[in-house]
């Protein structure tokens, strides 16, 4: 993997990806942040050596380098999931590349379902902690100790200072920003009523199919990291209705302006 990382990094450096400070991973329906970026370079994933290729129809599949709020950033427009058939090492490969290129902070967004019924669809949740239900770890491979400490501490995976700034920004702009625990499952099927009940019992406030692998690797690489979920549906097992993916995407897009305010204001103050 080290050889692959070096090849990918050299390719992107030659493409002008020069000393970025911040990495951003954009989740489902959250692509409009790009409008706030002064784009310097962009490369399709399928042109980048050793990079996975996004296969989900609503994930665009571009790596973008540019300036946002005065900071150099790399933005993943579309992410990878293990439900696409990728390994956890594939899913988190871009995080390793962004760190190798120079980022010190990783900001992540996703769309998720609200397990906590005090949270409503269209609102945002700041991730304070997580539960990994994906069945493995992106650090579970031979040679991982050559890239960072094998037994990575996860007592505080999300940066408290950044989270505090997010909460203050939300307050200043009258944005509803809950704080809670995100559970990451494999997918791509949605949960059964019994599974939603289980998630509530074990302490999850929201559930999705991404994010946790990237957070684990970011901690392995000693990056500062924070993540925000757009709550796109309400997962009430006693009143469960079929979910339309197009409705989830529409809800993510509706909540996106608030997400953009949070991210832009935070980056300005980093």
TrEMBL record:
Q: Under which pathway is this protein filed?
A: Purine metabolism; purine nucleoside salvage
GO BP: any one term = nucleoside metabolic process
Q: Which SUPFAM superfamilies match?
A: Purine and uridine phosphorylases
Entries under Pfam families matching the protein: PNP_UDP_1 (PF01048)
Which keywords does the record carry?
A: Glycosyltransferase, Transferase
Family recorded in the similarity comment:
Belongs to the PNP/MTAP phosphorylase family.
Which InterPro entries does UniProt cross-reference here? Answer: Nucleoside_phosphorylase_d, Nucleoside_phosphorylase_sf, Purine_phosphorylase
Which GO molecular function, any one, fits this protein according to its record?
purine-nucleoside phosphorylase activity
List the PANTHER family hit by this protein, alphabetically: METHYLTHIOADENOSINE/PURINE NUCLEOSIDE PHOSPHORYLASE, PURINE NUCLEOSIDE PHOSPHORYLASE-RELATED
**Origin: domain of life:** Bacteria
Record's protein name: Purine nucleoside phosphorylase
Per UniProt, residues of the Nucleoside phosphorylase domain are: 21-268
Broad enzyme group: transferase
Gene3D superfamilies linked to this entry: Nucleoside phosphorylase domain
């Amino acid at each position: 993997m080290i050889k692959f990382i070096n090849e990918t990094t050299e390719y992107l450096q030659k493409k002008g990806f020069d000393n970025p400070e911040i990495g951003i991973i954009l989740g489902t329906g959250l692509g409009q942040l790009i409008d706030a970026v002064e784009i310097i370079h962009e490369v399709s994933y399928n042109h980048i050596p050793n990079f996975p290729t996004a296969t989900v129809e609503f994930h665009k599949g571009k790596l973008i380098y540019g300036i946002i709020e005065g900071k150099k950033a790399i933005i993943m427009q579309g992410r990878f999931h293990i439900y696409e058939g990728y390994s956890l090492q594939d899913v988190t490969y871009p995080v390793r590349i962004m760190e190798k290129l120079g980022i010190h902070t990783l900001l992540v967004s996703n769309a998720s379902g609200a397990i906590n019924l005090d949270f409503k669809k269209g609102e945002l949740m700041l991730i304070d902690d997580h539960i990994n239900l994906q069945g493995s770890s992106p650090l579970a491979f031979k040679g991982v100790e050559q890239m960072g400490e094998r037994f990575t501490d996860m007592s505080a995976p999300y940066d408290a200072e950044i989270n505090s700034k997010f909460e203050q920004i939300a307050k200043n702009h009258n944005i509803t920003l809950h704080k809670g625990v995100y559970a990451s499952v494999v997918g791509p099927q949605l949960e059964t009523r019994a599974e939603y009940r289980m998630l509530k019992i074990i302490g999850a406030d929201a559930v999705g199919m991404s994010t946790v692998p990237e957070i684990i690797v970011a901690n392995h690489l000693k990056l500062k990291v924070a993540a925000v979920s757009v709550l796109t549906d309400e997962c009430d097992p006693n009143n469960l209705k079929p979910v339309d993916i197009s409705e989830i995407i529409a809800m993510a897009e509706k909540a996106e302006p608030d997400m953009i305010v949070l991210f832009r204001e935070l980056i300005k103050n980093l």
